[in-house]
Amino acid sequence: MTAAAWVELGALVVALAVSVPFFGGYLAKVFGDGPAPGDRWLVPVERRVLRWCGVDLDGEQRWSVYARSLLMFSAVSIAFVYLLQRLQGHLPFDPTHAPSVSDPALAFNTAVSFATNTNWQNYAGESAMSHLTQMVGLTVQNFASAAVGLAVAVALIRGLVRRRTGTIGNFWVDLVRGSLRVLLPLAFVSALVMVSQGVVQNTHGFTQATTIEGRAQRIPGGPIASQEAIKEAGNNGGGPYNANSAHPFENPNPITNWLQMYLILVLPFSLPFAFGKLAKDRRQGIAVLSAMLILFLSTTVLAAVFETGGNPRLTQAGASQSVTATQGGGNLEGKETRFGAATCGYYASITTHTSTGSVICSHDSLTPLGGMMPLVNIMLGEISPGGLGAGLYGMLIFALLAVFIAGLMVGRTPEFLGKKIQAAEMKLVVIYLLAVPLAVLVFAGASVVMTTPQHSILNPGPHGLTEVVYAYTSQANNNGSAFAGLNGNTDWFNTTGAIAMLIGRYVLIVAALAIAGSLVRKQTVPKSAGTFPTNTPLFATLLTGVVVIVVGLTYLPVLALGPIVEHLNL
What we know:
The protein has helices spanning 3-31, 39-52, 63-87, 104-115, 125-128, 131-161, 171-196, 224-233, 254-278, 282-309, 312-316, 340-353, 368-379, 390-410, 423-449, 451-454, 462-476, 491-520, 537-569, and strands at 206-210, 216-220, 415-416, 419-420. It is mainly alpha-helical.
């Protein structure tokens, strides 16, 4: 890699190191029991909103009520976005004259996608969706789905740190506070910065233009910066344009590109700090953050190295893939020349270590091992640092598994934050860890052996298998990025993909909330000589190893048949 690529990564790490403790402390105050910044102005607003919705600001819920409230909110969100798409051709504020979405399976897939924070898109945004649908439907869900994930993480933390109580907070309060105090301010400021750098923000439809060659061209407009900001800050990923963040109107220059990478990472990496503060043990948060950081840096650097290394077939054919004054070097197939191979590797890894899924280059055109890195990131469960909220509660689930394994090794009942981890919690942990791989492997296996789905696979062989596995892995883990060689806009892939998204979102959320409900009723036990400390470098190492081993045992066979075989064929 070039010195510029290392500087870019270094600047991102430094910016996160400076700002993550601040955001972590702020999140802890927002969701803690004490006063928070802005209470004087925001508490009256929150009370008014919640009273209008019939919610008691001071009332708390048991885990089952919390889960029912979340599921009801999500079901209404899915139904609303579905109906909005089906009727958009008859609704106002449609300067692009987008017709109603006529395919029920596509509308269902899209509605589920945005409500589950996946933002999987089997359509071209600038021509398929009206401005009304983009703003009232999709952008609103970018806020709502991110706030839901944040709420679940906070609920699980309460389950871990509270003692002998039956409640884990109030979903409606957490939803409003996360949206009003965290997501809206960050998205508002970020959108202003993006507009200053040339990201489009208007209410125009298509502008007709004539090119130098004399040909007619339609230039799309729309409320782009406002959606782009929350798309990244909320780890959503679905872009208003088909080219996503590779489009110059969404991501015009290296400044906006760097800002997008920063926005994707800052809140997920801040949550472990918030966890440490709420647990009143800063080192607990640092241990979880360290495991996330090890996994993140490993595959991020590898992805950039594999892409800057180029394609050996081209080298054998005599083509130069080195950096020169006229080319960026490396594997440039499917790359935006504004960003180059190394930045594509960084961005692809960052967007898949989280549940963001936005792209600045074609993942389908990555080298076999370069493309395997984003796939592995998603297979990890997007816990390094993962989606907003989902990354932290996913890593805490792995922490429970790690202390259970450590307890088996020393013959002692495992404990985490003084709470004994027993059979009830471990059954829920197993459900959490197996639900997504089961959905991915069953649907992917069916797709490669059934006749109708096979027609959507444009590249038979190892690469085609990777495309199918990537699609279901991305949807089930609520990521949303894709390999482009698969035609996903069919009844089979739209329907099964939507089911995978629902499993990957709500089965895991209910399991996490059930664990929180089980733990919150327990009393902490005093530390003893046999207590395994969970705030040390040793535990961070154990946690990292458990993640790698569990994911490796689950997915290594399909990786061997896909990207690894494809690489060996080069």
